[in-house]
Amino acid sequence: MWQMTMMTNHNSSQPTPLNKGDAQIQINQPNRESKRKKKYTPHGLSGFPNLIMNILLGTFSIMCIFPFLYVIVISLTDEKTLARNGYQLLPEIWSFEAYRYLWQMKDQLLQSYTITIVVTVLGTLVSVIMIALYAYAISRKQFKYRGFFTFFAFFTMLFSGGLIPFYIVATQFLHLRNSIWALILPLAMNAFYILIMRTFFQRSVPESILESARIDGASELRIFVKIVAPLSLPGLSTIALFSTLGYWNDWFNALLFIDEPHLVPLQSMLMKIENNIEFLRQNSLAGGAQNDLLSAVPQDAAKMAMVVISTLPIAIAYPFFQKYFVNGLTIGGVKE
Amino acid sequence: MNRIKSFFQDVYKNRVWLLMVLPGTIWLLLFSYLPMFGTVIAFKNFRYDPNGFFASILNSEWVGFENFKFLFNTNDAWIITRNTVLYNLVFIVVGLILAVFVAIVLSELANKKLSKVYQTGMLFPHFLSWVVVSYFVFTFLSVDRGLLNNILVWFGVEDPISWYNEAKYWPFIIVLTSMWKGVGYGSIVYLAAIVGIDKNYYEAAMIDGANKWQQIRNITIPMITPLIVILTILNVGRIFSADFGLFFQVPRDSGPLYSVTNVIDTYVYRGITTMGDISMSTAAGLYQSIVGFSLVLLTNYLVQKVDKEYALF
To answer: Read out DSSP for A55-117?
Structure first.
């Protein structure tokens, strides 16, 4: 990530050694100057305001990551310590018990992981293909009905039938209840992405290249696969990234359509485990008899360990895809 | 006859393109347009029919505007509308101020590496699901173990606050959570716009002796004002739809909080789980769609007035 920021960022005009970070820039200065002489930006606070703003934004960005670190700490806390002291920032007694406990019930966990991965991979594939084909067709002037099909997609952005009719169609007409397609299909298309991709195709795929390929006798589908797709890789990978994140974090469709344990994805399992453990705990507080049985289970730590395990892939991949995400957001407008 | 013939000739000529839009068209028909047709059950007394979707819709009894009358006679309609609109208004105003502020500061920090690090940190919450965020919030608000009550006890407060039962705190918690998750994301577009401003303006201003604050006030903010106007108006167009996850997951579906956390989206969802209310929920959903649709049209009209370039259509 560090190198990444070096590549994309501008030099500051007048660095003043105020804090550690600023001192660094001065040390780096000769090296960076020689690399990029022409880059110059007038932006750059100096002195006291710079310090204040650094503290302000620094605090906020730490606050944004803090809960995740906090959850990791809780998941590594001994259960008895949790019961006695609550969620501490620095626990008295550390323990891996929660993760050991999760390892014991790893069958369900692995099953949910598998479901999430399958849904994410399959869903991203399906949605990128569908969106790209649709968007490409309506981006080409040769397509006589492109106006109609653009509006056909666009209108769904403006008006929707609402949740209940969608739910009834999906369960009664398409019979998606307790099917893995219930997790894939509802997220497969998105009018907004279609319009973004259409603009992207119009901008990045010049008609002249396609024209010469057509003269050489290539079919439109072949042109799409051999020329258009490679040319629009940045756009396609942006859509792929958006939809991968969408599928990974989706719990809503599971909430609506999935009851069977072997189809429950990670996020939804996170919700269910909450309900189950909370339910057991409340019962045990009332009953008292089950207390001993339950205190053996690291409930709270285990819950938090589940949160950590399901968030970890995103947290690890995040520094790598963040740049593409930011670039992708500004990649193409919705308008023609 | 000729027109039909030429139509089929056209279809044949465009067959490759039509084939390309076919999968997407089928999807849109099934998942978007069929539910639009399904909204007629807002005017019916819905009964499940074992013969499937169309039978259910056709065989349900027609009741006209009864569902709407019933909906608007309950207190719920007022509460969910108030909650949805008020929360969205606060999100728009506070979100805009924070996003623009963060974007300007990020662009002005002397150390660009640090600025990038801050941005990375602030964008992180955007990639977490609401389920995960609700756990995060829980670690702060848990009655017996949460960080906030721990701190309160440490300060000598006798009885800890039962956060998930006290509605009065939740407007703040909801807004705070929403901002925490969204500010980093919201600032991206503004930051991109600021970085894109021609540097000559700033150089000229500096030569004229303008200080940083004057530069921000007289160059940066005027330059991004069109973007601010457009994005704000678009958000106003969406003022009738709420973020389901925020209002469903974060308050943990806690009953005592419904008065301040129930929004149109959660109300409609609860229509599925509590049987019998399905027609009324559909009515609520249709009410949301129609008002939302009108608002989008209205705001787009306003955008056109401001600047045609930025209008959606």
So the answer is: HHHHHHHHHHHHHHHHHHHHHTB-HHHHHHH-S-SS-SSB--HHHHHHHHTHHHHHHHHHHHH
